Amino acid sequence: MSEKKSGGGLAGVTAGETAICTVGKEGAGLTYRGYDITDLADQGSFEEVAYLLHYGKLPTAAELDGYRSRLRGLRGLPEELKALLETIPAGTHPMDVMRTGCSYLGNLEPEGDFSNQLNVADRLVAVFPSILLYWHRFHTDGKRIDVETADDSVAGHFLHLLHDRPPSESHRSALDTSLILYAEHEFNASTFTARVITATLSDFHSAITGAIGALRGPLHGGANEAAMELIEKFSDPESAASGVRGMLERKEKIMGFGHRVYTTSDPRNAYNKRMSKKLSEETGDTWMYAVSEAIEKVMWDEKRLFANADFFSASTYHFMGIPTYLFTPIFVCSRVTGWSAHIMEQRANNRLIRPGADYTGPSLQEWVALGERA
Ligand code: COA
Protein backbone atom coordinates (compact mmCIF):
# COMPACT_ATOMS: atom_id res chain seq x y z
CA MET A 1 0.00 0.00 0.00
CA SER A 2 1.12 3.58 -0.51
CA GLU A 3 2.26 5.62 2.49
CA LYS A 4 -0.86 7.80 2.30
CA LYS A 5 -3.09 7.18 5.33
CA SER A 6 -6.57 5.89 4.62
CA GLY A 7 -9.49 8.26 5.26
CA GLY A 8 -11.73 5.25 5.93
CA GLY A 9 -12.64 2.54 3.45
CA LEU A 10 -9.13 2.84 1.97
CA ALA A 11 -10.39 5.83 -0.06
CA GLY A 12 -7.59 7.35 -2.11
CA VAL A 13 -5.18 4.57 -1.16
CA THR A 14 -3.21 2.86 -3.93
CA ALA A 15 -3.20 -0.81 -3.02
CA GLY A 16 -1.07 -2.27 -5.81
CA GLU A 17 -0.27 -2.17 -9.51
CA THR A 18 -2.34 -3.36 -12.44
CA ALA A 19 -1.96 -3.39 -16.21
CA ILE A 20 -5.58 -4.39 -16.74
CA CYS A 21 -7.72 -1.30 -16.29
CA THR A 22 -7.81 2.44 -15.69
CA VAL A 23 -10.80 4.00 -13.95
CA GLY A 24 -11.31 7.75 -14.28
CA LYS A 25 -7.64 8.42 -14.96
CA GLU A 26 -6.86 11.85 -16.35
CA GLY A 27 -6.59 11.58 -20.14
CA ALA A 28 -7.53 7.87 -20.17
CA GLY A 29 -10.93 7.41 -18.51
CA LEU A 30 -12.18 3.84 -18.38
CA THR A 31 -9.96 1.48 -20.35
CA TYR A 32 -9.49 -2.30 -20.46
CA ARG A 33 -5.88 -3.18 -21.32
CA GLY A 34 -5.49 0.21 -22.99
CA TYR A 35 -8.71 0.07 -25.03
CA ASP A 36 -11.23 2.83 -24.41
CA ILE A 37 -14.58 1.63 -23.10
CA THR A 38 -16.38 3.57 -25.84
CA ASP A 39 -14.51 1.63 -28.58
CA LEU A 40 -15.17 -1.66 -26.81
CA ALA A 41 -18.87 -0.90 -26.27
CA ASP A 42 -19.45 0.63 -29.72
CA GLN A 43 -17.51 -1.86 -31.80
CA GLY A 44 -16.64 -4.90 -29.72
CA SER A 45 -18.50 -7.88 -28.35
CA PHE A 46 -18.45 -9.34 -24.85
CA GLU A 47 -16.52 -12.37 -26.11
CA GLU A 48 -13.79 -10.09 -27.53
CA VAL A 49 -13.61 -8.33 -24.16
CA ALA A 50 -13.46 -11.65 -22.27
CA TYR A 51 -10.65 -12.80 -24.57
CA LEU A 52 -8.85 -9.46 -24.13
CA LEU A 53 -9.05 -9.70 -20.36
CA HIS A 54 -8.10 -13.38 -20.13
CA TYR A 55 -5.49 -13.60 -22.87
CA GLY A 56 -4.13 -10.03 -22.83
CA LYS A 57 -4.85 -9.14 -26.47
CA LEU A 58 -7.80 -8.71 -28.78
CA PRO A 59 -8.54 -11.90 -30.72
CA THR A 60 -8.12 -12.13 -34.48
CA ALA A 61 -11.28 -13.11 -36.39
CA ALA A 62 -10.20 -16.77 -36.36
CA GLU A 63 -9.32 -16.64 -32.67
CA LEU A 64 -12.70 -15.08 -31.88
CA ASP A 65 -14.51 -17.81 -33.81
CA GLY A 66 -12.53 -20.42 -31.93
CA TYR A 67 -13.18 -18.68 -28.63
CA ARG A 68 -16.93 -18.50 -29.21
CA SER A 69 -17.09 -22.20 -29.95
CA ARG A 70 -14.82 -22.95 -26.98
CA LEU A 71 -17.21 -21.11 -24.66
CA ARG A 72 -20.18 -22.85 -26.29
CA GLY A 73 -18.57 -26.18 -25.51
CA LEU A 74 -18.05 -25.26 -21.84
CA ARG A 75 -21.69 -24.50 -20.98
CA GLY A 76 -22.72 -27.93 -19.75
CA LEU A 77 -23.45 -28.65 -16.09
CA PRO A 78 -22.22 -31.81 -14.31
CA GLU A 79 -25.12 -33.99 -13.10
CA GLU A 80 -24.01 -33.53 -9.48
CA LEU A 81 -24.23 -29.75 -9.84
CA LYS A 82 -27.70 -29.97 -11.39
CA ALA A 83 -28.81 -32.13 -8.49
CA LEU A 84 -27.43 -29.61 -6.02
CA LEU A 85 -29.12 -26.69 -7.79
CA GLU A 86 -32.43 -28.52 -7.55
CA THR A 87 -32.05 -28.73 -3.77
CA ILE A 88 -31.34 -25.01 -3.27
CA PRO A 89 -34.67 -23.54 -2.10
CA ALA A 90 -36.71 -21.49 -4.56
CA GLY A 91 -36.66 -18.47 -2.23
CA THR A 92 -32.86 -18.27 -2.12
CA HIS A 93 -31.31 -15.11 -3.48
CA PRO A 94 -29.74 -16.00 -6.85
CA MET A 95 -26.44 -14.44 -5.77
CA ASP A 96 -26.27 -17.15 -3.12
CA VAL A 97 -26.97 -19.70 -5.84
CA MET A 98 -24.07 -18.30 -7.88
CA ARG A 99 -21.79 -18.42 -4.83
CA THR A 100 -22.74 -21.98 -3.97
CA GLY A 101 -22.64 -23.07 -7.63
CA CYS A 102 -19.14 -21.69 -8.05
CA SER A 103 -17.90 -23.19 -4.82
CA TYR A 104 -19.36 -26.62 -5.65
CA LEU A 105 -17.86 -26.53 -9.12
CA GLY A 106 -14.54 -26.10 -7.32
CA ASN A 107 -15.24 -29.48 -5.66
CA LEU A 108 -16.27 -31.22 -8.87
CA GLU A 109 -13.65 -29.64 -11.12
CA PRO A 110 -10.84 -28.55 -8.78
CA GLU A 111 -8.33 -26.24 -10.38
CA GLY A 112 -5.37 -28.35 -9.38
CA ASP A 113 -2.24 -26.89 -10.83
CA PHE A 114 -2.21 -23.14 -11.50
CA SER A 115 -1.22 -23.96 -15.09
CA ASN A 116 -4.91 -24.81 -15.55
CA GLN A 117 -6.07 -21.29 -14.64
CA LEU A 118 -7.11 -20.13 -18.13
CA ASN A 119 -9.29 -23.20 -18.53
CA VAL A 120 -11.02 -22.42 -15.23
CA ALA A 121 -11.47 -18.78 -16.23
CA ASP A 122 -13.13 -19.67 -19.54
CA ARG A 123 -15.21 -22.42 -17.96
CA LEU A 124 -16.65 -19.96 -15.44
CA VAL A 125 -17.59 -17.41 -18.13
CA ALA A 126 -19.37 -20.14 -20.04
CA VAL A 127 -21.05 -21.87 -17.12
CA PHE A 128 -22.37 -19.08 -14.88
CA PRO A 129 -25.50 -18.39 -17.00
CA SER A 130 -26.15 -22.15 -17.04
CA ILE A 131 -25.88 -22.42 -13.24
CA LEU A 132 -28.15 -19.45 -12.64
CA LEU A 133 -30.81 -20.25 -15.19
CA TYR A 134 -30.92 -24.01 -14.59
CA TRP A 135 -31.77 -23.21 -10.96
CA HIS A 136 -34.16 -20.41 -11.92
CA ARG A 137 -36.12 -22.37 -14.51
CA PHE A 138 -36.26 -25.49 -12.33
CA HIS A 139 -37.85 -23.52 -9.52
CA THR A 140 -40.10 -21.23 -11.59
CA ASP A 141 -41.23 -23.59 -14.40
CA GLY A 142 -40.42 -26.97 -12.87
CA LYS A 143 -38.27 -27.70 -15.95
CA ARG A 144 -34.87 -29.34 -16.16
CA ILE A 145 -33.64 -27.23 -19.07
CA ASP A 146 -30.95 -28.14 -21.54
CA VAL A 147 -28.30 -25.47 -20.92
CA GLU A 148 -26.34 -26.18 -24.08
CA THR A 149 -27.86 -23.79 -26.61
CA ALA A 150 -26.38 -23.04 -30.02
CA ASP A 151 -26.23 -19.29 -29.35
CA ASP A 152 -22.77 -17.98 -30.09
CA SER A 153 -22.80 -15.21 -27.48
CA VAL A 154 -23.05 -15.23 -23.69
CA ALA A 155 -25.81 -12.60 -23.95
CA GLY A 156 -27.82 -14.70 -26.41
CA HIS A 157 -27.29 -17.84 -24.33
CA PHE A 158 -28.44 -16.07 -21.18
CA LEU A 159 -31.62 -14.64 -22.67
CA HIS A 160 -32.39 -17.88 -24.50
CA LEU A 161 -32.21 -19.91 -21.28
CA LEU A 162 -34.24 -17.32 -19.40
CA HIS A 163 -37.10 -16.95 -21.90
CA ASP A 164 -36.94 -20.39 -23.51
CA ARG A 165 -36.44 -18.90 -26.99
CA PRO A 166 -33.63 -17.10 -28.81
CA PRO A 167 -33.77 -13.35 -28.05
CA SER A 168 -34.44 -10.49 -30.45
CA GLU A 169 -31.26 -8.90 -31.78
CA SER A 170 -32.16 -5.68 -29.98
CA HIS A 171 -32.24 -7.43 -26.59
CA ARG A 172 -29.20 -9.59 -27.30
CA SER A 173 -27.14 -6.61 -28.33
CA ALA A 174 -28.26 -4.50 -25.33
CA LEU A 175 -27.28 -7.28 -22.92
CA ASP A 176 -24.00 -7.78 -24.80
CA THR A 177 -23.17 -4.08 -24.33
CA SER A 178 -24.12 -4.27 -20.67
CA LEU A 179 -21.79 -7.25 -20.18
CA ILE A 180 -18.97 -5.26 -21.82
CA LEU A 181 -19.57 -2.29 -19.53
CA TYR A 182 -19.63 -4.42 -16.37
CA ALA A 183 -16.63 -6.61 -17.27
CA GLU A 184 -13.85 -4.83 -15.42
CA HIS A 185 -13.29 -1.91 -13.05
CA GLU A 186 -9.82 -2.00 -11.46
CA PHE A 187 -9.58 -2.47 -7.66
CA ASN A 188 -13.28 -2.38 -6.83
CA ALA A 189 -14.41 -4.24 -3.68
CA SER A 190 -15.10 -7.63 -5.28
CA THR A 191 -11.96 -7.61 -7.43
CA PHE A 192 -9.85 -6.62 -4.45
CA THR A 193 -11.47 -9.48 -2.51
CA ALA A 194 -10.48 -11.87 -5.29
CA ARG A 195 -6.91 -10.55 -5.22
CA VAL A 196 -6.65 -10.86 -1.43
CA ILE A 197 -7.79 -14.50 -1.60
CA THR A 198 -5.51 -15.19 -4.55
CA ALA A 199 -2.54 -13.69 -2.74
CA THR A 200 -2.71 -16.46 -0.13
CA LEU A 201 -2.04 -18.88 -3.04
CA SER A 202 -5.58 -20.22 -2.72
CA ASP A 203 -7.44 -21.66 -5.71
CA PHE A 204 -9.38 -19.92 -8.50
CA HIS A 205 -12.85 -21.03 -7.34
CA SER A 206 -12.23 -19.73 -3.82
CA ALA A 207 -11.23 -16.32 -5.15
CA ILE A 208 -14.29 -16.08 -7.42
CA THR A 209 -16.62 -17.37 -4.70
CA GLY A 210 -15.36 -14.68 -2.33
CA ALA A 211 -15.72 -12.04 -5.04
CA ILE A 212 -19.36 -13.03 -5.57
CA GLY A 213 -19.96 -12.53 -1.87
CA ALA A 214 -18.46 -9.04 -2.03
CA LEU A 215 -20.41 -8.11 -5.16
CA ARG A 216 -23.71 -9.08 -3.57
CA GLY A 217 -24.01 -6.07 -1.24
CA PRO A 218 -26.09 -3.02 -2.24
CA LEU A 219 -23.13 -0.65 -1.98
CA HIS A 220 -21.51 -2.64 -4.81
CA GLY A 221 -23.22 -4.87 -7.41
CA GLY A 222 -26.45 -5.23 -5.48
CA ALA A 223 -27.18 -1.56 -6.27
CA ASN A 224 -28.89 -2.42 -9.59
CA GLU A 225 -31.56 -4.46 -7.80
CA ALA A 226 -31.99 -1.77 -5.12
CA ALA A 227 -32.32 0.87 -7.87
CA MET A 228 -35.11 -1.12 -9.52
CA GLU A 229 -36.95 -1.49 -6.24
CA LEU A 230 -36.75 2.29 -5.78
CA ILE A 231 -37.94 3.09 -9.31
CA GLU A 232 -40.91 0.75 -8.92
CA LYS A 233 -42.11 2.67 -5.85
CA PHE A 234 -43.21 5.52 -8.12
CA SER A 235 -45.67 5.66 -10.96
CA ASP A 236 -44.91 9.10 -12.41
CA PRO A 237 -42.01 11.56 -12.54
CA GLU A 238 -43.60 14.05 -10.11
CA SER A 239 -44.09 11.56 -7.29
CA ALA A 240 -40.60 10.19 -7.98
CA ALA A 241 -39.04 13.65 -7.67
CA SER A 242 -40.81 14.48 -4.42
CA GLY A 243 -40.27 10.96 -3.03
CA VAL A 244 -36.53 11.09 -3.67
CA ARG A 245 -36.27 14.62 -2.25
CA GLY A 246 -37.89 13.27 0.92
CA MET A 247 -35.43 10.39 1.06
CA LEU A 248 -32.53 12.80 0.73
CA GLU A 249 -33.93 14.96 3.52
CA ARG A 250 -34.04 11.86 5.69
CA LYS A 251 -30.41 11.23 4.69
CA GLU A 252 -31.28 7.95 2.97
CA LYS A 253 -28.95 6.64 0.27
CA ILE A 254 -30.27 6.36 -3.24
CA MET A 255 -28.86 3.24 -4.81
CA GLY A 256 -27.38 3.58 -8.28
CA PHE A 257 -25.87 7.02 -7.59
CA GLY A 258 -22.42 8.17 -6.60
CA HIS A 259 -19.08 6.49 -6.93
CA ARG A 260 -15.89 6.12 -4.95
CA VAL A 261 -13.61 7.03 -7.86
CA TYR A 262 -15.68 9.01 -10.39
CA THR A 263 -16.51 12.55 -9.29
CA THR A 264 -18.69 14.04 -12.04
CA SER A 265 -20.02 11.15 -14.14
CA ASP A 266 -19.71 7.43 -14.79
CA PRO A 267 -18.74 6.80 -18.43
CA ARG A 268 -20.88 3.66 -18.49
CA ASN A 269 -24.05 5.55 -17.66
CA ALA A 270 -24.47 7.21 -21.07
CA TYR A 271 -24.68 3.74 -22.66
CA ASN A 272 -27.09 2.38 -20.10
CA LYS A 273 -29.29 5.44 -20.33
CA ARG A 274 -29.40 5.26 -24.12
CA MET A 275 -30.23 1.55 -24.05
CA SER A 276 -32.92 2.09 -21.44
CA LYS A 277 -34.54 4.83 -23.54
CA LYS A 278 -34.46 2.71 -26.68
CA LEU A 279 -35.95 -0.34 -25.00
CA SER A 280 -38.50 1.83 -23.20
CA GLU A 281 -39.72 3.04 -26.60
CA GLU A 282 -39.66 -0.47 -28.06
CA THR A 283 -41.70 -1.93 -25.21
CA GLY A 284 -44.22 0.94 -25.05
CA ASP A 285 -43.23 1.85 -21.50
CA THR A 286 -45.18 4.87 -20.32
CA TRP A 287 -43.60 5.64 -16.95
CA MET A 288 -40.44 3.73 -15.98
CA TYR A 289 -37.94 5.60 -18.10
CA ALA A 290 -39.55 8.93 -17.19
CA VAL A 291 -39.42 8.06 -13.48
CA SER A 292 -35.75 7.07 -13.82
CA GLU A 293 -34.90 10.35 -15.51
CA ALA A 294 -36.78 12.30 -12.84
CA ILE A 295 -34.77 10.57 -10.09
CA GLU A 296 -31.55 11.26 -11.98
CA LYS A 297 -32.41 14.96 -12.24
CA VAL A 298 -33.23 15.34 -8.54
CA MET A 299 -30.00 13.59 -7.56
CA TRP A 300 -27.98 15.95 -9.71
CA ASP A 301 -29.89 19.12 -8.75
CA GLU A 302 -29.92 18.40 -5.03
CA LYS A 303 -26.67 16.54 -4.42
CA ARG A 304 -24.58 16.81 -7.59
CA LEU A 305 -24.64 13.00 -7.59
CA PHE A 306 -24.70 11.25 -10.96
CA ALA A 307 -26.14 7.90 -12.01
CA ASN A 308 -23.53 5.14 -11.91
CA ALA A 309 -23.48 1.97 -14.04
CA ASP A 310 -26.18 0.37 -11.93
CA PHE A 311 -28.99 2.90 -12.24
CA PHE A 312 -30.11 2.75 -15.88
CA SER A 313 -29.01 -0.86 -16.25
CA ALA A 314 -31.92 -1.66 -13.90
CA SER A 315 -34.64 -0.43 -16.27
CA THR A 316 -32.70 -1.73 -19.28
CA TYR A 317 -32.83 -5.25 -17.83
CA HIS A 318 -36.46 -4.80 -16.82
CA PHE A 319 -37.44 -3.92 -20.40
CA MET A 320 -35.82 -7.20 -21.53
CA GLY A 321 -38.15 -9.10 -19.22
CA ILE A 322 -35.40 -9.98 -16.74
CA PRO A 323 -36.69 -10.40 -13.15
CA THR A 324 -35.07 -7.95 -10.72
CA TYR A 325 -33.47 -10.65 -8.58
CA LEU A 326 -31.39 -11.80 -11.57
CA PHE A 327 -29.79 -8.36 -12.08
CA THR A 328 -26.78 -8.77 -9.79
CA PRO A 329 -26.07 -12.31 -11.04
CA ILE A 330 -25.78 -10.83 -14.56
CA PHE A 331 -23.05 -8.62 -13.13
CA VAL A 332 -21.30 -11.85 -12.03
CA CYS A 333 -21.63 -13.34 -15.53
CA SER A 334 -19.73 -10.32 -16.82
CA ARG A 335 -17.32 -9.36 -14.03
CA VAL A 336 -15.99 -12.91 -13.76
CA THR A 337 -13.79 -11.93 -16.71
CA GLY A 338 -12.26 -9.00 -14.83
CA TRP A 339 -11.88 -11.02 -11.64
CA SER A 340 -10.13 -13.76 -13.59
CA ALA A 341 -7.72 -11.30 -15.20
CA HIS A 342 -6.86 -9.94 -11.75
CA ILE A 343 -6.39 -13.40 -10.24
CA MET A 344 -3.93 -14.24 -13.02
CA GLU A 345 -2.16 -10.88 -12.71
CA GLN A 346 -1.87 -11.28 -8.92
CA ARG A 347 -0.40 -14.76 -9.33
CA ALA A 348 2.12 -13.55 -11.86
CA ASN A 349 3.71 -11.23 -9.30
CA ASN A 350 2.38 -12.40 -5.98
CA ARG A 351 2.92 -11.13 -2.50
CA LEU A 352 0.60 -11.82 0.43
CA ILE A 353 -1.82 -8.89 0.91
CA ARG A 354 -1.85 -8.14 4.61
CA PRO A 355 -2.17 -4.48 5.56
CA GLY A 356 -1.76 -3.03 9.03
CA ALA A 357 -4.32 -1.22 11.19
CA ASP A 358 -4.27 1.73 13.60
CA TYR A 359 -5.12 0.27 17.00
CA THR A 360 -7.98 2.04 18.81
CA GLY A 361 -8.63 -0.49 21.59
CA PRO A 362 -7.85 -0.35 25.34
CA SER A 363 -4.30 0.03 26.65
CA LEU A 364 -2.63 -3.00 28.22
CA GLN A 365 -4.93 -4.44 30.91
CA GLU A 366 -4.20 -6.53 33.92
CA TRP A 367 -5.42 -10.16 33.86
CA VAL A 368 -8.22 -10.80 36.40
CA ALA A 369 -8.83 -14.33 37.61
CA LEU A 370 -12.19 -15.82 36.59
CA GLY A 371 -13.74 -15.81 40.09
CA GLU A 372 -12.75 -12.18 40.74
CA ARG A 373 -14.31 -10.59 37.64
CA ALA A 374 -17.15 -8.08 38.06
N1 COA B 1 -27.38 8.72 -2.19
C1 COA B 1 -27.37 9.71 -1.27
N2 COA B 1 -26.25 10.24 -0.79
C2 COA B 1 -25.09 9.75 -1.22
C3 COA B 1 -25.03 8.73 -2.18
C4 COA B 1 -26.22 8.22 -2.66
N3 COA B 1 -26.22 7.23 -3.56
N4 COA B 1 -23.75 8.45 -2.44
C5 COA B 1 -23.03 9.26 -1.67
N5 COA B 1 -23.83 10.04 -0.93
C6 COA B 1 -23.44 11.05 0.03
C7 COA B 1 -23.19 10.39 1.38
O1 COA B 1 -24.34 10.33 2.17
C8 COA B 1 -22.12 11.26 1.96
O2 COA B 1 -22.73 12.44 2.41
P1 COA B 1 -22.20 13.17 3.74
O3 COA B 1 -20.79 13.57 3.42
O4 COA B 1 -23.14 14.30 3.90
O5 COA B 1 -22.28 12.15 4.82
C9 COA B 1 -21.28 11.64 0.75
O6 COA B 1 -22.17 11.57 -0.37
C10 COA B 1 -20.10 10.69 0.53
O7 COA B 1 -20.62 9.35 0.44
P2 COA B 1 -19.86 8.05 0.93
O8 COA B 1 -20.84 6.95 1.06
O9 COA B 1 -19.02 8.37 2.14
O10 COA B 1 -18.90 7.82 -0.30
P3 COA B 1 -18.10 6.52 -0.60
O11 COA B 1 -17.01 6.90 -1.52
O12 COA B 1 -17.72 5.81 0.64
O13 COA B 1 -19.17 5.58 -1.29
C11 COA B 1 -20.61 4.63 -2.83
C12 COA B 1 -19.30 5.39 -2.64
C13 COA B 1 -20.70 4.13 -4.25
C14 COA B 1 -20.60 3.41 -1.89
C15 COA B 1 -21.78 5.56 -2.48
O14 COA B 1 -21.85 6.63 -3.42
C16 COA B 1 -23.09 4.81 -2.43
O15 COA B 1 -23.42 4.22 -1.38
N6 COA B 1 -23.85 4.80 -3.55
C17 COA B 1 -25.07 4.01 -3.61
C18 COA B 1 -24.74 2.55 -3.87
C19 COA B 1 -24.33 2.31 -5.29
O16 COA B 1 -24.94 2.79 -6.22
N7 COA B 1 -23.29 1.48 -5.42
C20 COA B 1 -22.80 1.09 -6.73
C21 COA B 1 -21.50 1.75 -7.01
S1 COA B 1 -20.98 1.49 -8.67
Q: Can you walk through the features of this model?
A:
The mean pLDDT is 96. Helix 6 packs parallel to helix 7 (154-163) and helix 8 packs across helix 16. This protein has a three-stranded antiparallel β-sheet with strand order 1-2-3. It is built from 16 helices and three strands. 56% of the residues lie in helices and 3% in strands. With 374 residues, it is mostly helical. Strand 2 (29-32) and strand 3 form a beta hairpin. Coenzyme A is lined by residues 9, 11, 219-220, 223, 253-260, 303, 305, 308-310.
Estimate percent helicity.
55-70%
Which radius of gyration do the C-alpha atoms yield? 22 Å
> Count of DSSP helices?
16
Major sheet strand order: 1-2-3
Give a quick summary of the entry.
It is built from 16 helices and three strands. With 374 residues, the protein is mainly alpha-helical. A three-stranded antiparallel β-sheet has the order 1-2-3.
Which descriptors would you attach to this protein?
374 residues; binds coenzyme A; 16 helices; single chain; mainly alpha
Write the layout of secondary structure elements.
Blueprint (H helix, E strand, L loop, with lengths): L20 E5 L3 E4 L2 E2 H7 L2 H10 L5 H13 L5 H9 L6 H15 L8 H25 L12 H10 L5 H14 L6 H11 L4 H12 L7 H9 L5 H13 L19 H15 L4 H16 L7 H9 L7 H22 L26
Antiparallel strand pairs: 1-2, 2-3
Helix pairs in contact: 1-8, 2-16, 3-6, 4-5, 4-6, 5-6, 5-10, 6-7, 6-16, 7-8, 8-13, 8-16, 9-10, 9-16, 10-16, 11-15, 12-14, 13-15
Bound molecules: coenzyme A.
